[in-house]
Amino acid sequence: MEMCSRDLWELTHVLYFLCPFSVVSMFLNTLTPKFYVALTGTSSLISGLILIFEWWYFRKYGTSFIEQVSVSHLRPLLGGVDNSSPTNSNTINGEADSTLVHLLSALECKVWRNPLNLFRGAEYNRYTWVTGREPLTYYDMNLSAQDHQTFFTCDSDHLRPADAIMQKAWRERNPQARISAAHDALELEDCATAYILLAEEEATTIMEAERLFKQALKAGEGCYRRSQQLQHHGTQYEAQHRRDTNVLVYIKRRLAMCSRKLGRTREAVKMMRDLMKEFPLLSMFNIHENLLESLLELQNYADVQAVLAKYDDISLPKSATICYTAALLKARAVSDKFSPEAASRRGLSTAEMNAVEAIHRAVEFNPHVPKYLLEMKSLILPPEHILKRGDSEAIAYAFFHLQHWKRVEGALNLLHCTWEGTFRMIPYPLEKGHLFYPYPICTETADRELLPTVFHEVSVYPKKELPFFILFTAGLCSFTAMLALLTHQFPELMGVFAKAVICREY
I want to staple 244 with a disulfide (CB 3.0 to 4.6 A). Which of 227, 362, 478, 497 is the partner? Predict the structure, then answer.
């Protein structure tokens, strides 16, 4: 009796495992080779679509979509670790240090007005007419509109009819509507800001823009003198005087830039020096960067060094113009006789070491510049706004200063031989800097808003590796595509192989 019950239990156990196997075998025997072709082909198509989407998302946003969704949404649901309540003081101090670093990086992510920005009508629009491409992004032009409203308007504009019209004109999105409003304002009176708008957007040549800016200067000086006498009579008059000061400084700076573009460089230098003496506190316009470029054009290196001594200070914000001009002057002293072979044999002299250190300092501040100076990457027209340490600043600097590096014999050769050594000094630039704060993590996003990505590939630093999920989907797509091809070519053999694999599982 005991033997019978045990045999019955073993028989039941065998049948329990054989039944699913028999069902699976019957199901597999009914499948045709076309099913396997369709299965593998569909799998390859789906994984290919996922790969294309992942690649597009990575190129646009710099991260994997699947990874972002996993970290943002799935990890909390699966009970991810909450780091908001550290258990010891060391963790608190570490988080405080990390927060401080990110705050300092955020300050460096501020978008600045390009001090050497081109004229919209005489330069940007001419480029559009010739190439059919738009050199400025909507985000960049919107920032310019905000700048104009900040610098050229005030709360008391409604008291002067022409200024009231211009206040609305600066808010217009349509260029023709802005130009038409400026003409309407000039019919009422000589309005400095109306002349500015026409010089910037309607004038098709630099000479025409200069003529309009001279008319703006005449009107602006009159408003400035009147508001200067009344500035202490109340808050309203003080705001008017501040606005009139901004208008006058802007006009004089643009007139100096017109002189520089028309070849009257010495006149431009004099105008910039006078402007900096007259309004020493208005450093937000960064007129010293215009002055540095003009002095380099004159090859007046002693005066360039004097300007650097004043503005390349630890307490003042840096820029690519400051750092790379300092490196150019150091390189100029040794570049004509520099030879990498000779330097490797005898070592670097003190002057050569100073030049190399200056180049490393400049490259750490903005690592995108060397590729443009060495013409490893093509230049485009600089935007109206730049992000310091970003690709936009590198384009703006190289666009105007490449000629000055070419003029110094051997300077580009020295840069070519030494600039990549910077990255060995700062292997983890996002966590730790060497001479500057860690490289800000926000530059790529801001540069993609400032630069026309339709025909320009934004430079990214540090270079990002492909996310795991892109590599995974690429491998999956390739594997399933290969299976689909083999199944299509050898349907019977692949059918037998699939059945054998599944049966082995059971």
Answer: 227
Q: Say what percent of the chain tops pLDDT 70.
A: 74
DSSP per-residue letters across 310-366:
HHS-TTS---HHHHHHHHHHHHHTTGGG--HHHHHHH---HHHHHHHHHHHHHHHH-
Can you list the alpha helix ranges (DSSP code H) found in 366-390? Answer: 369-373
Q: Are 296 and 325 in contact (CB under 8 A)?
A: yes
Of the given ranges (171-185, 197-211, 419-433, 448-462), which has the lowest mean pLDDT? 419-433
Angle (CA) 18-22-27 rounded to 5° is 150
Helix (H) or strand (E) holding 386: strand 385-387
* Structure tokens, 224: 């400035």
Exposed / middle / buried, residue 122 (Cβ in 10 Å: 0-12, 13-18, 19+): buried
Lowest model confidence (mean pLDDT) among 118-122, 176-180, 256-260, 497-501: 497-501
Structure confidence by residue, pLDDT tens digits, 204-255: 999 999 999 999 999 988 888 888 787 777 788 788 888 889 999 999 999 9
Please name the amino acid found at residue 367.
P
Alpha carbon distance 401, 362 (integer Å): 14
How far is 165 from 193, CA to CA, in rounded Å?
10
Listing DSSP states for 431-495 in one string gives T--SSSSPPPTTHHHHHHHHS-TTT-----SSPPPPPHHHHHHHHHHHHHHHHHHHHHHSHHHHH
Q: What is the dihedral of CA 390, 392, 395, 398, to 10 degrees?
A: -50
Query: CA of 35: how far to CAs of 22, 486, 491, in Å?
Result: 20, 13, 10
Q: What is the C-alpha separation between 256 and 266, in angstroms, rounded?
A: 10
Distance between CA 90 and CA 98 in Å, rounded?
Answer: 12
Strand partners, 111: 387
Q: What is the pLDDT of residues 13-71, one digit of tens each?
A: 544 444 455 555 555 556 566 666 676 677 777 877 777 777 777 666 656 676 666 65
Q: How far apart are CA 334 and CA 155, in angstroms?
A: 56
Q: In whole angstroms, give the CA distance from residue 478 to residue 486.
A: 12
> Are 114 and 383 a contacting pair, CB within 8 Å?
yes
Buried b (16+ CB within 10 A) or exposed e, 425-436: ebeebeeebeeb
Work out the mean pLDDT of the chain and round it to a whole number.
Answer: 80
